[in-house]
Amino acid sequence: MTVGGTGTGDGTAGAGRAIRVVVADDQSVVREGIVMLLGLLPGVEVVGAARDGEEAVALVAEVGPDVVLMDLRMPRCDGAEATRRIRAAYPGTQVVILTTYADDDSLFPALRAGARGYLTKDAGGDEIVRAIQDVLAGQAGLAPSVQRRLLERVTAPPPPAAPAVLPDGLTGREGEVLGLVAEGLSNPEISRALHISTATVKTHINNIFAKTGARDRAQAVRYAYQHNLARPPGAPGSSIT
Length: 241
Hints:
Protein name: Response regulator transcription factor
Domain HTH luxR-type: 163-228
Strand content: 5-15%
Keywords: DNA-binding, Phosphoprotein, Transcription, Transcription regulation
Domain Response regulatory: 20-136
Oligomer: single chain
Largest sheet: 7 strands, mixed
Number of strands: 7
Helix content: 40-55%
């Protein structure tokens, strides 16, 4: 954990002073690169860098930054949990997520935890500064791709209702994935339909196989039909004819 700079410690950017930023990322090369980039930008002062969420929370308590640029996938305490702690204990500090991941399973937990901004790591310096300024002004600092995803989520029709209690310990999301497998969708098609990554789809399918005892997709589909989690082709109400 590194600390530098001075400031008011109240978590608000005063007129005429640089915006004070903490960077949190577990990859040293990435973390140092972000710190170097921010150091070249006018109006921004990096006051600390953290290797994980635990260090990020401690740094916020110590230096009172205006904004934390927070990675998501970190050891000990991930970015979403660190964001929740920071926003609960230090509401004057805003959080902008800066991550490789833009799938729903990463995006929505971070926003629910209190992050006001969400950028992917291909963002340029101007975009990062704009997001920082937006969140300090009380606005959302979201990458255009994230804004589109949120709009899609809001306007998408609700998924078909699943049974209140699924068999064999299947989760609601696993039930959704199984239903789409039964409709013949591929992993990339399921990924697009549910707005999750293909890696997350594969994880859900592996969990489905383990819980249902299915050895392949055909057996999983048969299981779905037997437990009324999907309708066979041609059955009343089926989307497959």
